[in-house]
Amino acid sequence: MTYQGGCHCGAVRFTVIVDKHEAIDCNCSICTKKGFLHLIVPPAQFTLLSGDDVLTTYTFNTGTAKHTFCRICGIHPFYRPRSHPEDIDVNVRCLDGDVLSQFQIVPFDGANWEENIDKIRDEG
Q1: What is the 3 state secondary structure string of the chain?
Q2: Residues contacting residue 112 through CB under 8 Å, at least 6 positions apart
Q3: Which structural domain, as residue segments, surrounds residue 50?
Q4: What is the pTM of this model?
Q5: pLDDT 10s digit of each residue in the chain, 124 long?
Q6: Which CATH number characterizes residue 55's domain?
């Protein structure tokens, strides 16, 4: 199934092809503050339609994750995650329409990342 989504102001727009309606709810420091619900997809299933010119990137800790966000409205619709650095991690909350109920939300103990990362890497 293909979904469209984007940031709050509409400058960033994308499409994503979803094979598995499952999103990860991580309790690490940044995901908790952003309210990010993770949908990790291969790059071939993600298309940035507009907004490349308004995206900016935040990195911390290992610098592996590339936390992209709209510099106009501050929303984080997708990024390159540390767990799957070759993939795209879409925020399910940034998909258009009322689609959240279509996804199974799976908790992930990212506060204890090192001890738990293999649980989502094996599935990703």
Answers
A1: CEEEEECCCCCCEEEEECCCCEEEEECCHHHHHHCCEEEEECHHHEEEEECHHHEEEECCCCCCCEEEEECCCCCCCEEECCCCCCCEEEEHHHECCCCHHHCEEEEECHHHHHHHHHHHHCCC
A2: none
A3: 2-121
A4: 0.90
A5: 999 999 999 999 999 999 999 999 999 899 999 999 999 999 999 999 999 999 999 988 888 889 999 999 999 999 999 889 999 999 999 999 999 999 999 999 989 978 888 877 765 4
A6: 2.170.150.70
Going by DSSP bridges, is the β-strand pair 22-26/104-108 parallel, antiparallel, or unpaired?
Answer: parallel
The domain tally of the chain equals 1
Tokens of 43: 């790059």
